[in-house]
Design a protein that fits this description.
Helices cover 75% and strands 0% of the residues. By secondary structure, it is mainly α. The chain has one domain. It is elongated, with a radius of gyration of 25 Å.
Amino acid sequence: MFRNTSTLGSLSAMTSWLPRGLVMAAVHILARVLLGVAVVQAPLHSTVWKTIAVAAVVLVALVWGGIDGIRDARANPDPDDYEDLTVRWLQAGLVAGVLSGPICWLLGTLWFAGIGQSSFFVELIAGGSFTALLVFVPAFVGAAVGRWIIRRDQNKNRDDDWSVREDNDHDDAETTEVATR
């Protein structure tokens, strides 16, 4: 049911999305901490810092999703055999959202006053949802683009000119012979 084509061996379904979710949660938490430090140091440039922080999380998810798409398309030349990267990255996004919201709230409450947190439930629900989408959507787009790149390269090597047909006189003779009887 679940198949991993990496050289590390077979992995269960959980271990394929859990490390992605944990790493993306760490990336998001790091981005929030660095954002808090940058906003405290240069508050007039907070829009620029926020844009950079969101772009960093999006870029990591986009590149990692693209790598997943490339690996999957190379391992499975037939698109019907592709792994379900959509659910994998959705689960990873949910893990990142559920973990990063409370952790950022805790960090903002206890140590970093400039991290910019809301109440616990707002951070958990709204922040977690935003983080889940911030991870899932770019990773999904990256996987689709990665698969498209590999499929395009595979299709360049194929000769699928439907207008050129080989004449097979032997088959035509049998068809004519059967039709005349």
